[in-house]
């Protein structure tokens, strides 16, 4: 472990001596967090240690999360520890194998592009971009590390942990307004298509830095369970920041690892988006653009407001089927226009020569019957708002900027039931 830096005038004591007292240990034969990822190989993950100082600047405080491609850690910024708002950072330490390292490099590049597109635009504060980056020399290769502002939790966790599974309309409207503002920046200023909008990739900001001070103190006095092996320790994440002290101030859209430039000269036709929110042109293999994000947002609204997926395309076992999803969309919007079917390289997988959908059919249903959380004028405005995104033809969907002017966002909400 590198020696801890000291900043003039700042009393800073290493915590490692306390952390290693009475450690709660996990069994060495039980997979822990990232170890359960498909094709997991410990050589591909940097063996981060609590108390370690990285890049002579960032002291690792706690593990915040993990994925198949990285681990995420809360760290003190020792060079800016005097400044409360900049006291902590989140470190995303990426895998070092060739394919994942290339993806991480692309994510860094597009994040830097987004930040530089219009640095003074007010909407940029609602987009989570990289603050710093560096490479770590691990025992089995180099690991790109991206530095971010810490956030409280993803929207889905807030929805289920704080709101009981559904998003009240009076909170949903400002959340959607910020999301659209951020998307308008991405689409019109940075010319970026996110392609993966879901509640996991929308993060709530922290109310105050003291939330992180408390988490750091909790980790010191009540260390996270971990598995200690000969070459590394694998920690359980500590990502519950406790009860909200105030309502969230704002959100940020994040995770640009699969984002693409929308101003590419080549048509975009590759498979994108979460299964539950996939736009029909993507399924059909037709060219897609910024409007695919808008379909994605429109479909996601039902998960937030109703706690249910509008057109999941899943069977009784929960298996996703693209044809079933197209049938569900047809049940709501009517048959797909021939103009769209003619664009798709994969249309024949789902439609016959007459333009009729093959396989599973779904009973017709009205979009208004899928909304139970709203009533009266509020419901009518919501259906019009969402309906402007849920259109078969991509060119008929409203843009994020246009939807920001929609009256549903500024209308009185239905009182909570």
UniProtKB/TrEMBL annotation:
Enzyme class: transferase
SMART domains given in the database record: S_TKc (SM00220)
Gene3D superfamilies: Phosphorylase Kinase, domain 1, Transferase(Phosphotransferase) domain 1
GO biological process terms on file: regulation of mRNA processing; spliceosomal complex assembly
Residues bound to ATP: 92
Keyword list, A-Z: ATP-binding, Kinase, Nucleotide-binding, Serine/threonine-protein kinase, Transferase
Listed Pfam families: Pkinase
Residue intervals of the Protein kinase domain: 58-409
GO molecular function: ATP binding; protein serine/threonine kinase activity
Reaction(s) catalysed by this chain's protein: L-threonyl-[protein] + ATP = O-phospho-L-threonyl-[protein] + ADP + H(+); L-seryl-[protein] + ATP = O-phospho-L-seryl-[protein] + ADP + H(+)
Family the UniProt entry places it in: Belongs to the protein kinase superfamily.
Stated name of the protein: non-specific serine/threonine protein kinase
């Amino acid at each position: 472990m590198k020696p801890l830096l000291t900043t003039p005038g700042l009393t800073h004591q290493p915590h490692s001596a306390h952390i290693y007292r009475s450690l709660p240990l996990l069994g060495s034969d039980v997979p822990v967090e990232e170890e359960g990822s498909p094709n997991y190989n410990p050589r591909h993950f940097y063996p981060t240690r609590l108390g370690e100082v990285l890049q002579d600047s960032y002291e690792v405080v706690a593990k915040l999360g993990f994925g198949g491609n990285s681990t995420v850690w809360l760290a003190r910024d020792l060079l800016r520890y005097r400044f409360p708002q900049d006291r902590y950072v989140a470190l995303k330490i990426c895998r070092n194998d060739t394919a994942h390292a290339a993806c991480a490099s692309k994510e860094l590049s597009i994040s830097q592009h987004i930040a530089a597109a219009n640095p003074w635009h007010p909407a940029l504060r609602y987009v989570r971009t990289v603050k710093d980056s560096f490479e770590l020399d691990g025992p089995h290769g180099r690991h790109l590390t991206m530095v971010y502002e810490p956030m409280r939790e993803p929207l889905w966790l807030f929805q289920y942990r704080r709101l009981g599974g559904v998003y009240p309309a009076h909170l949903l409207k400002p959340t959607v307004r910020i999301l659209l503002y951020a998307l308008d920046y991405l689409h019109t200023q940075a010319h970026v298509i996110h392609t993966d909008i879901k509640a996991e990739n929308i993060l709530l900001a922290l109310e105050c830095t003291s939330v992180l001070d408390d988490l750091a103190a909790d980790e010191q006095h009540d260390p996270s369970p971990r598995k200690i092996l000969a070459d590394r320790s694998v920690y359980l994440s500590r990502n519950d920041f406790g009860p909200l002290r105030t309502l969230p101030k704002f959100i940020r859209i994040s995770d640009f690892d699969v984002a693409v430039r929308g101003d590419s000269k080549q048509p975009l036709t590759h498979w994108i988006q979460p299964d539950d929110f996939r736009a029909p042109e993507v399924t059909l293999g037709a060219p897609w653009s910024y409007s695919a994000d808008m379909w994605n947002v429109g479909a996601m609204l039902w998960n937030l407001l109703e706690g249910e997926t509008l057109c999941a395309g899943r069977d009784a076992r929960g298996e996703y089927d693209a044809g079933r999803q197209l049938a569900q969309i047809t049940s709501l919007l009517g048959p797909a226009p021939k103009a769209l079917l003619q664009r798709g390289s994969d249309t024949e997988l789902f439609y016959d020569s007459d333009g009729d959908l093959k396989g599973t059919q779904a009973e017709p249903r009205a979009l208004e019957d899928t909304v139970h959380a709203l009533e009266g004028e509020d419901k009518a405005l919501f259906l019009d708002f969402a309906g402007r995104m849920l259109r078969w033809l991509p060119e008929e969907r409203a843009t994020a900027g246009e939807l920001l002017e929609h009256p549903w966002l500024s209308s009185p909400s239905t009182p909570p039931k």
